[in-house]
UniProtKB/TrEMBL annotation:
Its main location: membrane. Residues 135-236 form the P-type ATPase A domain. It is found in: Cell membrane; Membrane. This is Cadmium-translocating P-type ATPase. PROSITE patterns: ATPASE_E1_E2. CDD domains: P-type_ATPase_HM_ZosA_PfeT-like. Belongs to the cation transport ATPase (P-type) (TC 3.A.3) family. Type IB subfamily.
Amino acid sequence: MEWRSAIFPKSVTTQPTKWLIKSVPHLELIAALFSGFIILVTWLLESHLSSTWFVLFHLLAFSIGGYAKAKEGITETIQNKELNVELLMIFAAIGSAIIGYWTEGAILIFIFALSGALETYTMNKSKEEISALLELQPEEATRITNGQEEIVPIKQLKIGDTIFVRAGERIPADGIIRTGSTSIDESAITGESIPVTRTRKQEVLAGTVSLDGAITISITKSADETMFQKIINLVQSAQEEKSPSQLFIEQFEGTYVKVVLVAFSIMLFLPYLLLNWSLEESVYRAIILLVVASPCALVASIMPAMLSAISASASKGVLFKGGVHLENLSHIKAIAFDKTGTLTKGDLMVTDAFYAQGTDTDAVLAIAGAIESQSTHPLANAITSYSKEQIGQTKTVIDVVDLRNISGKGIEALVEGQLWQIGKPEYVGKELAEAFHDGVLNQLASEGKTVVFVKTEDRIIAAFGLKDTIRRDTKMAIQSLQQSGIKTIMLTGDNERTAKAISEEVGMDAYIANCLPEEKVNHVKELQQNYLHVAMVGDGINDAPSLATANVGIAMGEGTDVALETADVILMKNDLSKIINAITLSKRMNRIIKQNVFFSIGVIVILILSNYFQAIDLPFGVIGHEGSTILVILNGLRLLK
């Protein structure tokens, strides 16, 4: 999967820093690694360097490795008026340098900078989903004023204006059809792959496509109130909300820094005043306290484990955009699934064919395939493919003339002077359709299938049942999730009958039909109230708000760009069974992270107490502190297996 590269801002010359970051997306990681290289070289050449060069090399490592974190710490402190861990690390490193332990301070900076750089690299989500949505919104519309057509920006459209939309064009605004009729591809809004017929006085939505008819529309909503704009707003608002875990971490960080700085201040003078320590000893022990209390091990407790789990997951076809989403996945109690393109393949197929008695089935299939091959309608494509599968490529040339698309109803043409009609029951005659083959229409419809009839010489001679088929791995995936105690719910824009049929076939715990994007979001929020932690699986533009609202959004790898960019997790191979594997990995990762956190906190406590009782010196403090960091990293790397 190729992700979109960052777009350079127009104001490059006025914003050189931002331009540099976008031009070199891994600059922070490169700086951290380079500072580590300088530290290594300085350590190897220490015996050959003068004290001046020794200090200069370490200052260079401090500056290169610590710049990003120092800037981040200072900026966030000013903005939030709250001290943070970044500043604590800088203080610890500077304190080490002040008392002559340059290498120890530089190593602290390097490890913290490297962790931060890796976190930035792995958790940097794409911010282009809104741009991808806007690409589907036409920028201009054909407005009709006093009988004259004029091209205007959609922002100039007002309620009551009349616009003209040609066949094949995307509708630019919500409104009511005044003249004409057409089949509308509403997949961008509802996710339903089968086009729907819209005629006079019926509503159409911005972002949908008029497939085969020209229509005029009276606008009913301004550009900023359309259903399409609501999708954009929902994605934005959902992404801006902070998770409870994130808020807790931010609060913990501020408290942690304050406690350490207070302890540092006390250590500077209290032992000197009350315990008969020398002032030099008190300052020395206070600096050691800053070093051993620095959060390198705590940071390393999480990121290496997450990176390892993300790498292992990616090798199995599941891509996480950040470790936090992998962490959250283990808490999921319910998963909502879109239907079309998620539980199903998203491609219509002929599943049933019925013929009138005495009919030459091959001849009917050949003619129906020849007629439908001249249409781009999804139903026509399915029948054309079915014809080729059943009888192969016919050698006889079928001369199709006077072909006409009957908008929203079907298609008709002359073959050897005989009129052939292919379409909906209403088009070929509802009574004839309902009576054909002992009422097969009702049977197929109850199974959630779309029925297309073939009529000639005033009688129906064939009927085809079409359906969006279930993915091969869907049933197994749903069963595995249910066995793990996770509730499964289908959210679909389909009608009640189709939704019920698919839900029963797949084995879902529940389903909700006739869902527009805004309604899907509301249903996801209701599920969150009932189950607390909810995931959403989808593939279409219409799923983007729900994917952003859910605690974890999961997109199919073959989904739209918007779904891929909005989701937190991507199933690269479109295999739903991989979800249960990812959940298992998430639980294992969380166990390892808890082990690391308790261990690292325990080491910090032991080192702090040892320092207070004057049992360790600074080199041993650094060894204990960095040793615990290495151990938790190695423990996290076990997830690579």
